């Protein structure tokens, strides 16, 4: 889970959005109607990796929020 993240529009004239973790950019969302690409720039992604294109921004952001807000099952303490 990422404790906090911020989404901001990088370019008002183009479909450029950046997602940061407060220190650095961790994802880039780029595209246009019908074809949005989410690029993972986190350290564990081993460089820039692009996912399959998304049909719209909402689908890309739903996946992103699910990825960043995932909370693993708590471990049982014996």
Q: Care to give the gist of this entry?
A:
Helix content is 17%, strand content 36%. The chain has one helix at residues 57-69; strands at residues 6-11, 15-20, 25-32, 35-40, 49-50. A five-stranded antiparallel β-sheet has the order 1-2-3-4-5, with helices on one face.
Major sheet attributes = 5 strands, antiparallel
How many helices in DSSP terms?
Answer: 1
Low-confidence stretches: none
Number of domains: 1
Q: Distance between termini?
A: 24 Å
- What is the chains' assembly state? single chain
Write the layout of secondary structure elements.
Blueprint: E1 6-11, E2 15-20, E3 25-32, E4 35-40, E5 49-50, H1 57-69
Antiparallel strand pairs: 1-2, 2-3, 3-4, 4-5
What does this molecule look like?
With 78 residues, the protein is an alpha+beta fold. It has one helix at 57-69; strands spanning 6-11, 15-20, 25-32, 35-40, 49-50. It has one domain (6-69). Helices cover 17% and strands 36% of the residues. Strands 1-2-3-4-5 form a 5-stranded antiparallel β-sheet, with helices on one face. Strand 3 (25-32) and strand 4 form a beta hairpin.
Structural key phrases:
five-stranded antiparallel beta sheet, 17% helix, alpha+beta, elongated, 78 residues
């Amino acid at each position: 889970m990422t404790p906090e993240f911020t989404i901001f529009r990088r370019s008002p004239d183009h479909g450029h959005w950046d997602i940061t973790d407060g220190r650095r950019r961790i994802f880039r969302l780029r595209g246009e109607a019908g074809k949005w690409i989410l690029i993972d720039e986190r350290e564990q992604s081993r460089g820039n990796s692009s996912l399959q294109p998304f049909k719209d921004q909402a689908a890309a952001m739903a996946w992103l929020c699910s990825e960043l807000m995932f909370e693993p099952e708590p471990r049982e303490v014996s």
